[in-house]
Amino acid sequence: MSKEKLFPDYIFESSWEVCNKVGGIYTVLSSRALTLQRLLGDHLIFIGPLFDAPNPYFEEDSQLYADWVAQEKELHMRVGRWKVPGRPVAILVDFRPFFARKNEIYTWLWELYQVDSLHAYGDYDEASMFSYAAGRVVESFYRYYKLDDSRVVYHGNEWMTGLGLLYINNKVRAIATLFTTHATSIGRSIAGNNNPLYQYLPEYNGNQMACELNMQSKHSIELQTAHHVDCFTTVSDITATECRELLDKPVDVVLPNGFEDDFVPTGAAYARKRKAARARLLDTANALMGTHLDDSTLIVSTSGRYEFRNKGIDVFIDAMNHLRHDSWLNRDVVAFIEVPGWMAGPRQDLQERLRAMEGGATFDTPLDNPRLTHWLHNTNDDRVLGMMNYLDMHNRPEDRVKLIFVPCYLTGSDGIIDLPYYDVVLGNDLCVYPSYYEPWGYTPLESVAFSVPCITTDLAGFGLWANKVRGTLSTIMDGVEVVHRTDYNYADVVAGVEDTVARYASLPASAVRSCRTRAHRLAKQALWSRFIAYYREAYDIALRRAEARCDQ
User: Fold this and answer.
1) What is the pTM of this model?
2) Could you report the per-residue pLDDT of 162-184, keeping only the tens digit for each?
3) Which end of the chain is more exposed for a tag (fewer CB within 10 A), N or C?
4) What residue ranges in 160-297 does DSSP mark as E strands?
């Protein structure tokens, strides 16, 4: 008979992305918060970095844990609410005072855990001092409120929280530690440096590759954290293999990333937002290029971090170029690359045209460089524009496929699109994420959550999961086309994306409706209410190991 799973009385969870919208981990934590808060209330506490600038994602509350904050003299903190569903408690801690003790902290880390901080550069010091400060916050709270008789879990995300996890492992042995790597630092680096990752994965030595790629310090903290925490986790089966081979540590549990669907509009609100998004995207394209694309145009996009190869941006551009020459294509296509680059600001000439169009004006001539919505600081060195130049993609009038680069975060106030990202997703007919390195893949999950079919690959955790749910290879008629991708089949992936977009463009309206329905149905399988079961397993493992340690 199986034992009842242990569940924590308190969960502290830290990440550089708590109240700090940088990448996908922000979405993981902020969307999961509501489900956990329903179980723990204000005993779910997130810890993030404190900066000087006003924080739009955080609201201070001086009443929360005020007695503890008042007596704490060493740590400078702000306590309040993360402005996401559930409004969980968030503590933002100032890590900068610990820079003065950096060498002392790194020496301690080496002597106890053999973490190599000598080769640190870039964001290593900043992340490590934040991590140390976060660990100190957990220790202080634990001791002040005398939580010795409570079940407490400290959960850190990515290598940036490793130092704090090791600090708690050493200083407060009763606290159960849980570490999630969303992508190993060395795996991402191998892929990002155009090395073949997957075929040679069993042959790679993580320590050796860290030396070759100048990643010793980040790899070292990640490696030692994985080996010393009570429960080591990652987000997909594909990254679990990566952890086993590069960190020499099998994960204890795979924690797939879910979402809450309360932000997805329904009914009339959905139709209204979709219509508005399509109108704005088409107006932007027409103003930029002097075209007259109407609502029959197929709108396609890709988005994510500016990792040119890892995110498959190169594949997307190549596929759109091939589609441009496809004689069977009988429909206009406008494709958007929504990836933040080194943006200098919105184009004033484009803004002026958009304002004129609101008054009924139309334009028949393109603006200068009609491929770009915002100016860049590095136009001549930008990889997206460089590849488009190489392929002679200039959005000429005769091109059935137009490709537009939107090099900014879609916050709703970028100066051109002026809609938040989720509203923009609604306006798409099809999203494309042909990733080479994608531990999970929130962008395709978000796409199908909004009933927008998408293309991904089986090198993305989400793609593998979609195949698993389907029980076979998922196709666009299932809502998600999973293209087979390896280290060496780039041309096949390009052809697969081109073919799928072309087929989707020719589908009758009834088939499109079916694809959209199935996409949304698949997303329902990824709600946090389902995926939280994996976290319960991880908490149980961590708590039991912590209890066993304390009983010795």
Assistant:
1) 0.93
2) 999 999 999 999 999 999 999 99
3) N
4) 176-181, 231-234, 253-254
